[in-house]
Design goal:
The complex is a heterodimer of chains A (165) and B (103). Chain A has 165 residues and is mainly alpha-helical. Chain A has helices spanning 3-21, 25-45, 49-73, 89-109, 125-133, 137-158. Chain B has helices spanning 3-24, 28-51, 60-90. Chain B has one domain: Helix Hairpins. In chain B, helix 1 (3-24) packs antiparallel against helix 2 (28-51) and helix 2 (28-51) runs antiparallel to helix 3 (60-90). The mean pLDDT of chain B is 88. The chains are: A mainly alpha (165), B mainly alpha (103). Chains A and B meet through helix 1, helix 2, helix 3, helix 4 and helix 5 of A and helix 1, helix 2 and helix 3 of B.
Chain lengths: 165, 103
Amino acid sequence: MDLTLFIIGVATVAAAIAAMSLRNLIHCVLALAVCFLGVAILFLRLGAEFVGFAQILVYIGAVAILIVFAILLTRSGGEEPKPFFNSQWWYGLAIAVAVFGCLSFAILGGKSIQPQSITGNSTTVKQIGTELMTTYVLPLEVMGILLTAAMLGAVVIAWQKGERK
Amino acid sequence: MNELQAYLLISAALFCVGLVGVLTRRNAILVLVGIELMLNAANLNFIAFWSFSPNAASIDGIMFVIFSIGIAAAEAAVGLALIIAIYRHYKSVNVDEVNSLKG
């Protein structure tokens, strides 16, 4: 484990914690974009170039902006009213700490993994495209239908029926 | 600790931070942000296991993550539309004030 990975990992997790704990929702979304960028850098380090750039395009370019729009449309920008955690926050924190303890125990205690070198796997966009059009063509079509249905559903749900004052 | 375990630990930390957000924040938009963080942690696990796998020719890990990103985008769009509809009805996006179905 080298120093750059440590720095990127700490920055990513710190941005995630900021996204979950800041009071101003706009600041939360900015921290979330930093966290997505950290995950994209980790993807690039792992040799998954296409997924790294897709992460930047989809998450930072679309999802973060969509969340900003939702915050502005619900007029909850700026400081939130005072209790910004719910009344059972203590249980949630305890459950999450227990889950993290369990996961890290399993990760650090497992001895069956003998990882290969990181440069062993590299893939090109051409290879991904070929696979998508041959082996994975049915999931690709289903994904297209799902995205169309989700887009139509989002429009229908958010549609303002009639004109109310 | 080898490098794969470092990536898995980062992923576990991201997942648990997202879990804290989902379980504790009152604002529904931040609950959705927490879900996005948990999905990202899962994607990081896929890529880490793919990158260190002995089967170098397989690109199944990449494919899983590509479809997962697509599903996450659809989920975010529908979830935010639902939040806007809830805001229009209740004039609030706090999850503990939307309790009409509470017994």
